[in-house]
Amino acid sequence: MRPSPRLLSLLAPVLIGGIYFLAASISLILSRFEGGIAFIWGANALLMAQLLTSQRIYWFRAILACALASAVSTALFGMGPAAAIPMMLMNMAESLAVAMICRHYASGRNIMVALVPLAIFVGALCGVNALAGLGSALVASHLTSVSFGASWLQWYWGHVLGGLICTPVLVMLMQGEWSRWFRATSPRLRLEALGLLLLLGGVTCYIFYQDRYPLLFVPLLPLVIISFRAGHHGAAASIIVLATVGGATSALSDGYLSSIAVSPGAKTQFFQIYLAFSFLLSLPVAAELNGRRRLFQMLRESEARYRIIAEHCGDMVLNLGTDGRIGYASPSVLEQIGCAPSLLIGQPAADLIHPKDRALVAAACRRALEKPRDIHRVEFRLLRAVDDLDWYEMVARAVMDEQDDATGIVCTIRDMSRHKARQHALQQVASHDSLTGAASRRAFLERLEMEIGRLGGRDQSCLLLLDLDHFKAVNDSHGHAAGDRVLAAFVERLKPGLRSKDCIGRLGGEEFAILLADMDIHRASAVCERLRRMVADEPVHLSTGQSVTVTFSAGLVELDGVANAAAMLEAADKALYRAKNSGRNCLHLAA
């Protein structure tokens, strides 16, 4: 029967406190060579690993358990009861501060996996212990014969090296990294890693057993090889083997370390520094390799997705170099432009584009290279296009290297001909009155504004405002269908009397406007009179067999190139009002 989660949560602090007490007691018994602070201290690494891998709600229990363990071990095996509380406070402050810094600046990232979280951990460990060591050295220098400076160095090196060597390994253990690696790794690679670790153990045993030659650099070669082959898991296992075999060999034999004429504490610090530098040599290599493996896997997945999309979609996909030449063309090119993709490789992409649009596409490609993180769109015609409806849309984005420099462009090209045709049809519907075929009010006003801006006080153009006489009587007598027929026929009769560059628009109801471009007011007046006769001389025949004679009143204004469209319409409307009041079926000029 498995224990309940509540029971496990209660037992966890007891377990962590017990292990902390054991690690602290062993360090105090074996490494207080000068009677002061221990030269080896890995107990805080256990608490830091626990804080780095657990939720914050469980921190208080773990810290309380380890604080009790620290105080008891110091009182029993360290500097006595007087130092128990101060040393406990320093130990807890160190572990908590390092954990909080790492959780804040490297949240959610394993310190073994990437260089940035590893650097944050090392920096926090070194900086926090530089401050915590001051308080501990003050206590030790008062209670023992060891000086303040020596006590600070003993604390600093023991805690920094112990934390650096043990914390990453313990983090991996608590996060289940070892078991996941074992399950995810092939038997061949597991056997290879085991063989390399045995080789490292044998080399380490010999190097520390002999005392003739300084060969401490030799184990670094198998250590780096293991890091390459097994990643950060192999790097952590290598440090465990190096520390265990090297430490045991040095303790049980008169090997290389015994030949160094320094104190036991100095030899211990030397060995820890050796382990730390070995660790810092292998772990960044492993972290970088791990990042490259993930990147390589992501690239392979991205390549697979890209191939499926490029080879099975209807859009054309092209890879362009920075010189604009084609490096890859998808199979859909054959269907879209009738050319085999292989024939396009190495050819300038500009050769496929209509000459009128090449500058536009080239500008879009330059923007893609200058702003590689943005997506750029451009519409253009292919060289084979026979009219303005054969349009394509290109979506382009730069391809970047490791330094985020653009090395080329990948683009998709989609046939936009049908979309352009629909867009043109919608524009036609929006810009023309559906009943009469004249320009809509909005389209006419836009044309009027453009004409005013074009004049600029140099040329002459006129605006003619028309209103059908007694149109309400037509609707009342013959019905609205007859009224619609009269409006449509009215525009049909006007068009033969206008030039292609003139524009007629329906402003609303029975009110129309005509823009007479490049025409002074005298010629415009003559045109208006001719139009009035053309409309009046030809009655409109209705479906009922009856006929309706149509006349209109008009107001004419000359555009000055300064006043806006609203002012011109207002002036023409005033002239039209005077024409209506003077008997209708006549023209009046604006004042």
Automatic annotation (TrEMBL):
Which intervals hold domain GGDEF?
A: 459-591
Example GO CC term: the record gives: plasma membrane
- Tell me yes or no: is Kinase among this UniProt entry's keywords: no
Q: Name the UniProt key words of this record, in alphabetical order.
A: Cell membrane, Membrane, Transmembrane, Transmembrane helix
Q: Which residues belong to any copy of the PAC domain?
A: 376-428
Q: Name one Pfam family in it.
A: PAS_4
Localization, UniProt = Cell membrane
Ranges of residues in domain PAS: 302-372
Topology relative to the lipid bilayer, per the entry, is: Multi-pass membrane protein
Q: Does the keyword Cell membrane apply?
A: yes
Write down what this protein is called.
Answer: Diguanylate cyclase
